[in-house]
Structures are given as C-alpha cells and as structure tokens.
Records
---
Amino acid sequence: MTQKKPITVAITGAAGNIAYSLIFRICSGELFGNDQPFNLSLIDIEPALPALEGLVMELQDSNFRLINKTICTTDPFEGFRDADYAILLGSYPRNKNQTRKDLLGKNVSIFKIQGKALSFVAKKTVKVVVVGNPVNTNALVTAKYAENIPKENIVALTRLDMNRSISQLSRKLNKNVSNIKNVFTWGNHSASQFVDLSNGYLLEGSKKTPLTELVEKEWTYGEFQTTNQTRGKAVILKRGRSSAGSAANAVIDLLKSWIYGTETYVSMGVISDNNPYNVPENLIFSFPCTCKNGSWKISKDLKPNDFCKKMIKKNVDELVSERNIAFGLLQD
Amino acid sequence: MTQKKPITVAITGAAGNIAYSLIFRICSGELFGNDQPFNLSLIDIEPALPALEGLVMELQDSNFRLINKTICTTDPFEGFRDADYAILLGSYPRNKNQTRKDLLGKNVSIFKIQGKALSFVAKKTVKVVVVGNPVNTNALVTAKYAENIPKENIVALTRLDMNRSISQLSRKLNKNVSNIKNVFTWGNHSASQFVDLSNGYLLEGSKKTPLTELVEKEWTYGEFQTTNQTRGKAVILKRGRSSAGSAANAVIDLLKSWIYGTETYVSMGVISDNNPYNVPENLIFSFPCTCKNGSWKISKDLKPNDFCKKMIKKNVDELVSERNIAFGLLQD
C-alpha cells in the first residue's frame, strides 16, 4: 500500500479547551481518514506554550500513528507554513466592561496578522475555518488580508448554531437528529442569528413532512429562536465552562461537509456574493450552503418569508456595522 | 438496512475530565462502529449533576445520531442496568495528607457498591474497564462483589502505561509508534510498574529488529522506566491539569483491543490465574495479553529475565499489601 503524502493542519488557540476536544478527534483519523497522515502545527500565545507542550506529550502518549510531525509556535508565519487546513480557534475573549469596539479592536489585529501569514506561507488551496468570536467579522478581516487565498476558502463557523437548532427540533418532535433536514441559520453568529426551518423537513423512510406542519408558528418564531440564541449561556450555567466539546464537534461537522460534500443545506459563514437575499457583497454571512468536490455553494432558490427577510436585514445591518468599526480600526 | 439493536454504555465519573474527552469520541462512532446505536448511562455524584446535564446538552447539540437514549443518575443500580459496557472513571482522589489506607478505604466502599450494582443489574456479559485509581485494587474489589459477572470481564486500565512506553521508544528511535510492537507493563499501575521491552521489536516492512539491539541496557532499566513512572506528573506540570485526553484515548485503545482482537501483546490489568510468572491468584495484575473474539488471554510463553522477575515480585508484594488493606477494611 502506497502511503499518502502528509497534509498539514494548523490550529490557533491550540492550548485552549476547544482545541483539546478537537485535536484528539482529528488525530484518531475521524476527519481526514484512517490512511491520511498529517503534520500538526499548533499555535498559541507565549503564556500558553507550556500547556501546549503538555498537550503534545499527551498526543505522543496516545500513539496516534497518523501524526507525521508536530510543531508548537507563537508565530503564525511559521505555524501556517504549507497549511492545507487552518482552524482559527484563538481570539481575544470578551470581558465584562468591554465595548464592542474594544473587543473588535483586539481581534482585528490578531486576524489581520493571521490573514497576512496565511497569504504568505499557507498553500493557496488552504481551507480556513474561523471559530474565534466575533467570528463573522474575524473571518472577514482574515479574508481581507489573506490576499493570495481565494475568499471562498475562508469560512466562519455557524454550524454549532445549526446543530443546536436540530438538537432542539429533535427533542421537540422526539425524533432522531438524523431525521431532521434543511434547517439552518442566517447571518451573524450572535444573538441576532435567525434559525430558518421553513425549508426543513422530517425524513422518515422516503416520507418528507415539512417541519412547518409539525411545529407551531408561535414556537418557531419565539422559543425556538431564543433557546438557540441563549444555548451557549445555558451550557455555561450548567457546566461552569463553555461548550468546548460541541464546538469542536461542529468544526468537524463543518469540515466533513466541506470536504466530502452534503446533499442537504448546511450553515456556513461564507463571503457574500450576488445573491437573491439582499445580502450585500463583502460580508461573511451564514447562508444555507451545499458542498460538492470540496467547494461550497450558496443555495439561491429559497423564498424567505417577510419575517425572515426582516431578520436577514437585521443581521446585514449588524454585520455592516461590525465591518465599519473593524475596517475603521484597521485604518487607525 | 436493518438497524442494530442499541447497546448500553455506562460511565461513572461522567462529569469529569476523562469522561469529557472520552464520551464525544465514543459518540462519534469511533469505538463501537458507525452503525451501532447505544444508550448512554452517565453516573456521577450529586454535586456533579448540573455539570452532567450540561454535558448532555452538548451531546444533544453535537447531533450524534447513534445516541438512542441518555440517562444521568447518581445511583449505580440504575446506571448499570442492562449495561453491555461499564467504564468506571470515578474514584476518590488522592489528597496530600492522606495515607494509602485512607485512600483505599474511601475507594473500597465506592467499588464495593459498584461491583454489587453490576452484579445485580448489568448484563452478565458486561465488559468492565476500571480507570479510577488505585486502579488494580479498585478493579479487584469490583470483581469480588460482582458475583454474577465472570472475573474475566473486569479489566484495569494499564494501557496508558504501555502507550507511554511506546511513545518514549518512538522518540528515542525516531520511528512511528505503529512500528513498535510487543512492549508492555507488568504489575501495578503505580510507580512500581515495570515496562518490559525484552520481547519488543521494531517492525519495518517485514523486518523485525529486537528492541534490545536498538537501545542501551542502561537506558532500558533506567531512564526508560523512570520517565514512564513519572510521565503523568510531567504532563500535569506542563498543562496544570492531569492527562485526561490520553487517558481517554487509552480506554478506547484497550476496548478496541478487547473487542476487535489484537495480534501482538497489549497491557491489560486482568485477574491472575495459574501462570508461569509466579503471580499468585486473585490479584488484578498487568500482564501481556492477546485478545480474540472478545476475550483476552495472558501470554504464557515469555521468559522474563532475573531483573524482570524481581520487578514482578515487587509488584506482587505491593498489590498483595493493597489487597490485604482493602479486604481488611471491607470486613470492618
């Protein structure tokens, strides 16, 4: 058997909790396949380096045969070298007394450098998943500075929002998650996000029942939305820690969809282009996408109702405002 | 396609860190297969129930289609009901000012109840993996009270010790972990453990080179042993937290070996029977085992050298002493 050539997977915030949940699953071969060796490039800030070395010791002690080489670094220009995949988990965390502008300011400078580094040293075909919040604008800043990388290659994680909505519907309908299709979120990964189930259906055998026939309108536009918006906080209240395992899982789900394709809609935060939903160009926006041969495509044949259009508009406004602040700061 | 009947997987200490690393990997289908649905039975102490509920929320939000039903409970008589697999992660942690007797005392009472519960409510064919320390004696106590369960079904995790030794050899020889075969640990999962590489070899293509030809004797009986013994502490020093991810990984490795079989020796802490190594009966002792059709077998054709025999004796003495303390406490 000829061995496949190793691919390179770079991860920022690699000493953090999401990374700890993500990396062991990647190393098990679950994402890239049991015959695909890889180089791991683990990136984090200086104070996190000891923890990162501890993680590397644990990866060694897990006897993962697919790991070809591992490096730890604080320098994205070293860490992203020849990357086939870059998973950007790290970001500047929100503090209590911080304005949105302060938060954006801290993150803009991180993702500007990372965008430049990706542009200079990563493969031109690199697939980039941005996870650190505010994720849509962080991804947009990355795309802006990653001049040599097609903007299509940079995707913001909104899959956890979609997964949470399917999780809710699964409990509401008492059906397996795998029976619920074509539910997704529009817009920003923030409290403004809008979950759209108007195209969704319950699949049982070959029978498709529209979700709108199965759940009440009041619930759809009320509790369903607010539960999704506040799910992250609800997990923190119970666990005392943020939802690392399910976030890592959403990264894997997103990449599986992107790499291996999907037959139904999935949520992906992608660069907006000419689209029938009045989302202006040059935003990273969560759209219903389908994937094939390693590329995503925005589904353009949906007919959002008036309420949905209003929510899309709200998300556009919010993201334009974030973009204006972020790009303004970049000129300072 | 006919769907497989769900199996039941019970996990104690389910709100802890090893569980958090383990459960997502199990739920991904990695261990029991992509077509094997399961019930999750999550067991922990009362104060951990909120965290456990948070974990369940995250599992829901991960859209794991293989999960059939999940329960959270503090009661092993509920938690182990109909279990096909029981993974006992929870134990009473070691405190600084605690004697070995105190520590054993706390744990003996936990594993006595769990043994009884397994005996009463689990499937007779249940496979039990004990992870909580002191793991050998905890497993022995479990076996003693699980009267209806064959003692062969209860195994103590010593796989992490084996994995760590292969990890060391991999770095020493600059070879992939998968090239290193038949290295294992004897005895107790404690500082007395002895890593035996005298039967090990480096496999390259079809060429087998004995490890004894590749590493120095001094290293084999010196640094190699001490590094393995202190590896857990070394990880804690770097990470500031104990090695949860690699411990969870070792549980998966052990169960894969046990369920799917193995062609070379693996470390398993199993009930001692008539064996040529002078290990008396009625101890849970790490032996070199091979597995086939869901059963393990101690490899009985090895020829330990004098030093190894001395180390086996040391481990026997330590475990007999632990057993005497533990069983003495059980009579109180």
---
Amino acid sequence: MANGGPEIEQLIQLLARLPGLGPRSARRAVLHLIKKKEQLMLPLSAALDRAVVAVKSCEVCGNVDTISPCSICSDARRGESGILIVVEDVADLWALERAGVGQVRYHVLGGVLSPLDGVGPDDLNLDGLIGRAHGYSEIVLAMNATVEGQTTAHYITDRLAGTGIKVTRLAHGVPVGGELDYLDEGTLSQALKARTEI
Amino acid sequence: MANGGPEIEQLIQLLARLPGLGPRSARRAVLHLIKKKEQLMLPLSAALDRAVVAVKSCEVCGNVDTISPCSICSDARRGESGILIVVEDVADLWALERAGVGQVRYHVLGGVLSPLDGVGPDDLNLDGLIGRAHGYSEIVLAMNATVEGQTTAHYITDRLAGTGIKVTRLAHGVPVGGELDYLDEGTLSQALKARTEI
C-alpha cells in the first residue's frame, strides 16, 4: 500500500479508531481533509491543539470543560433549584442539556456497576456523589434503562437511604434497553418531567 | 448548550464536516478523544500537525504524498511497465493500489467533465496527462462507470487519437453506476485484467 507516506497512513489509522469511523471511512475523511486543507485541515489541527491543552475534567462533577469546577458547577443559579442529576457519562449530561432540562446540576459517575466487567463501586465517582448529595434537595438518577444502569440506581438509592434526601428516577418514557444519548430531546424532556419517587 | 466550552464546541463542529460523521457522531468522537487523551487525542493532534506540514500534491501525477514527485512517480520500476492508469481521484488511485494492480503509474484528473456542474477540460489535470502520455505504451482509463466518467474517457480517447498510444479502459466488471472506491479488491483486479481496447 502506497497511501502517500507514513504521515498520511498514521493519520488514517488514528482516525479509524474514532467511534463511527472504520478504515475505509477514515481514508475518505483524510482525503477530504487534504482536499480542504485551508478550510478544514488547518482549523481542525489548531482546534485539536487548543483542546488538548484546554480540556479538563471537572473536579466536582466529572463533566469535561475548559475550567474546573466546570461552567455548570460554577453557575450559582444552577444550585438554587436544589436538583442534582446523576448520569453515567458526559454524553448523557450533554444529551440532557440539549433537551433543555433547566437550571440543574449534574454528577457524572463515569460508568455503571458491572460485576461481569469487573466494575465495582470503587471504580465509579460514587464517593464524590455521596459527599456532595447533602447540598441538594433532590437527586435524580438518570442512568440508562439497562440492567447495569438500574442496578447502579438501586445501589445509589441504598447508599442515600436515611439521609432524608429525595431520590427520584427518570420516568419510564425511556425505552427499556435504550441509551440516553440516542433519544430525541422531547422524550428526554418528558421523562424528566414525569420522574417518580423511588 | 453547555457542551464544555468553545474549544470543545469548535472541535465538534469541525469533525462534523468530515464525510461519514454528523453532529451526533462528531460529539461521540470528541468525547471518545477526551476520554482517550493520552492514547488517541495527543497522537491525533500530533499526526495532524505533521500531516499539515508534510502532505503535498505530486506535481507530476496529482497524487497526495509527502514528497513531490510522489513515491510512485519516483519509483523507476513503475515506469518500466509503460502503463499509465488515469483516475478521477486520489481515492481511486488508493483503491487500485490496494487491489495490487502491480508496477504501474497513475494520473489523477481531479474530477470528471461535467458541463452541468460547470466542470470543463480546463478544470481538470488534462494537459498534464497529454503532456506525459507519450512516455507510456498504454493508457488505461479507469474512470468511474458513471455518465460523467465515461464522457471524460471518450474525451481523453479523442485527445490521444493519432498519437499511436494504446488506450484501454477497465473491463465491464465494474457495476454500472458504481464507484471505484467502494468496490472489493477482487472485482477491481479482474476489471483491470480484462481491460479492452477502445
């Protein structure tokens, strides 16, 4: 294969590791980048350089942002609602933000309990959640509607039992087996409105 | 939308412009990059920086490479066969190389004649082809099997008429309406073997 030198070959191999891109689509993407060097390749290269330096994980909630605490944790208005939404992943946080769920705060677990995969309570950002939960009047558990997600929700409910904090979960508008990031904004919004107490 | 600062938002918007990625898959790709910062984001950033500097268009054939003339044009063994394959695009050149068509040289037109889109002979690398054709014993026209591709093949055949150079086209193993880059290697190999004289 003489796909134009090691620099191009390496770029293809790295792009092929992105979700949604395989070796073939990575090649097309690289050719597209080379064709649009000024309009796309240079800006993308600069944007990646900036992001590498700027992006960090929020020390409070686990969100990704360019500041820590992140812009959501730093926003005082978001604390006033007293609502803390617990999500598995940053993608789920973004999905809820796109759904426009209002002035709330988030806590990103960084995964779900999954004994088969060797993921226990210590592998998740659970102590951080327990530590900050007392500052909120309601904890909304917005895990995916999978077995692992619901197991994690039960575990958190048990941990918070006796603290007097109201613990709720998303309404069963979420299709069973589905993942938050793939839902349309309307469904997510409805599921949050119809949340029920555990 | 508080997708974590302008640096992240800009990265998503740029990645969404790659073929095969939309806004949603670009978001997933960026989150994946941030999660795999050391293993993927840093190497990709560095690879892009290097490619931006290194990648150039071959002054002879139009291929993309890090040297000009490109590694194919610089390879003396590839000149010995006397075969020059004319393709629309660099993606087609790469597809033929993957099919292992042997020690041949290429000429990338950079598109096809398409009066409806305002693409005439002056917009393609046609003069370059006519200028170097005399150094080869056979010109293989490997355009896509589309109306525009075949029109371009006819135009090149007319321009080369009277030069005594043998002009061939790919065999009709290529599905009508299909594009080279999507074909499997076996079909491409067969199509080249069964090429017929125009």
